[in-house]
Write a structure and sequence with these properties.
0% strand; elongated; mainly alpha; 6 helices
Amino acid sequence: MVNTRNTQFYKDFLTFTFSQWKPTLKENLRKIFTEEQFKRLAKDLNLSQSINPTEIKFNQWLGLFKYFLVGVTDHKKEFVIGAEKNLQRQQAKLEKIHRTRIKSDWKK
């Protein structure tokens, strides 16, 4: 489990990973983990080098996060801090259109 004081950090870690728009987990986490760190994590957590973030099991996410907390420099952790709030801010700016409830000439 994630310690309650790290809950927001865990959410930021997941948000950062999923918002990178890369095809594989390895590419998504390139800013955080070195090549060697990812290879070791992949072996320890039984992850494929080409795994997609949506294919990872919960315990594997926990393993990645636990290593992130202790094995990554503070400089690299800064990439992750605030990722969830940034995403929420971006989404708040989106105009949501419910096509079934608007006039047919809404684009004009």
